[in-house]
Amino acid sequence: MKLTMKGDYGLRAMLDMAAYYGQGPIESSDIASRQYIPEQYLDQILMVLRKEGLVKSVRGPKGGHMLAKAPGQITMAQVMQALEGYVPPMECLPNPDFCKLSPGCALREVWQKIDAATQEILNSTTIEELAQRHRTGTTETMYYI
């Protein structure tokens, strides 16, 4: 899985909103400033996350953005799916016809295991967990592949 800046920025924005969850909307300029994200690009990302039901936006002088549900109910997988779609580690996984060697390829089997482990980690890691680790400054790797 290759993470693009879009996915990275989206996850950082979600973590920022998780830090202020329950305190009302946050202006995109504040998120952009704290997370070092270009504001125009952040606005595009927030629009995608809003369409996917992960973020709510409020217009007006006291408007801004906030998580649409509790941080513990949003997984990394949901954010990544919204922003990146499915990104396999190798093109042959979703499309075996991509490579003539796919049917009996020993490497493909390993890539399938790596993909399954990656998806499990993304599905089991919530924005709340990430926000808690961020607040406490924990940098330990939680998973080993």
UniProtKB/TrEMBL annotation:
Q: What GO terms are given for molecular function?
A: DNA binding; DNA-binding transcription factor activity
What is an example of a Pfam family matching this protein? Rrf2
Gene Ontology CC, one term? cytosol
Q: Which PROSITE patterns match?
A: HTH_RRF2_2
SUPFAM superfamilies per the UniProt record, alphabetical: Winged helix' DNA-binding domain
What InterPro entries does UniProt report for this protein, alphabetically? Answer: Tscrpt_reg_Rrf2, WH-like_DNA-bd_sf, WH_DNA-bd_sf
Q: Which UniProt keywords apply?
A: DNA-binding
Q: Which domain of life is it from?
A: Bacteria
- The protein's name: Transcriptional regulator, BadM/Rrf2 family
Q: Which organism is it from?
A: Ktedonobacter racemifer DSM 44963
